[in-house]
Amino acid sequence: MKRSWIVTIVSIVVIVPMLLLLVSVKENKAEQQAINAVPDIKKLEPRSSEWGKYFPRQYDSYMKTRKSDEIKDVLKSSPALVVMWAGYGFAKDYNAPRGHYYALEDNINSLRTGAPVDDKSGPMPTACWTCKSPDVPRVMDKNGELDYFTGKWARLGGEIVNTIGCADCHDNKTMKLTATRPYLERGLDAEGSLKYAEATHQEMRTLVCAQCHVEYYFKKTEWNDKGVKKTAGVVTLPWDNGFSAEQMEKYYDDRDFSDWKHAVSKTPMLKAQHPGYEMFVTGVHGKQGLSCADCHMPYVREGGVKYSNHQVGSPLDNIGNTCLNCHQGTEKEFRATIERKLERKNELSGIAMDVLAKAHLEAGKAWELGATEEEMRPALQDIRHAQWRWDYSIASHGSFFHAPEETLRVLGSAINKGQEARLKLRTVLAKYKAADYVVPDFSTKEKAQQVVGLPFDKLVKEKKSFLGGLRQQWIETGKSKGIYDPKSRADMKFKTSYN
Known about the structure:
two-stranded antiparallel sheet; mainly alpha; Flavocytochrome C3, Chain A, domain 2; single chain
């Protein structure tokens, strides 16, 4: 009798785990089959929650990008930027980027996009929506690319209502990675080292990011809309000569292009956007064949299911599952190395910003004293090139990590060009008996705004009026069209640097 009990207990101990394992295997197979099944998702469906019905793990991990919600006022910590960007939108408002969950919200709330009162007012063109929403390729597909790029930003407020999501990067039938912005293919083909049509899956894990994390400008393009002549500001990648700061600088110079004329120095300026891809391909990670997704969207495993973590963020948030897959040492040692790289970049960037802000103010004084265009031209060209190179080297945010040597090289050249500009300006100032001119204090955001004459309080008042009025109409329009996804704003709190 005792022996039969022992046999029974042993049998239970063996059989129960096997049954549980069998159930788990069946569940995992069922889940994997569901993932591999052809989903029923509309073409360019902008509501990510609809994709999440078929890919819940990816969707749930993506929704965690809302944890990256801190507002960091970069103008407050680096007030020289207000002077450097005088006359341009970034002097009004510039915060460190938050998670993809907030991309559209931050674009709408920024003082840079102004306070339109209807679909024809405001300072920005429609192109300013381009990287913020899967509604963009949907509208392009519906009305045509040239129509999308025509008119004011506010014209599409009721159409662009969902933040960055699944349809930006995936085909709705096959789930394959795909570029939904046609300018990327044009840019790659013009540069020539990688043709879009020949890109591998691994390369696409970078290229879908390169749709937005690149340098671009708005190229004026004439077109005919049913007999009516119109002008589109088409997002264009300046890659014809190559990816380096100097090659793109030449591209712009050859076309006599400028993003704006500086309000103080009158320099025809260039504004780097976020050339992350260009920097990445010059660094060791890019040259070794890594993709953006390898580090920013690492694979994770839950039970028998392996999937890419869509909580896009810094690899430093998950070093054990990203960096230490390749790098040796402890997490503490690795963080110390990265901190040293960042400190070096910040040191040179700080020097460059101080030099450039002073150069702009010194140029403004020279104009005030009666300097001629002929006298000012050489110094202004140096300012243009210096600020472009500074901006190119830091605007992609992760440049110090992606390509630290290239970042420091370009920053060094920016400082050199800026100092050359100041030497030339001192000669001009001396000619007008102002060799001892000292620039005004711009050590705080408020002082810098006063120096360049920025009406900050007025801008904030107008913006708040827009957010309480026309902005709310856009949401209602999106709802009435059946394209607005309320889950894309679930539990979202209003956060800006000015509220």
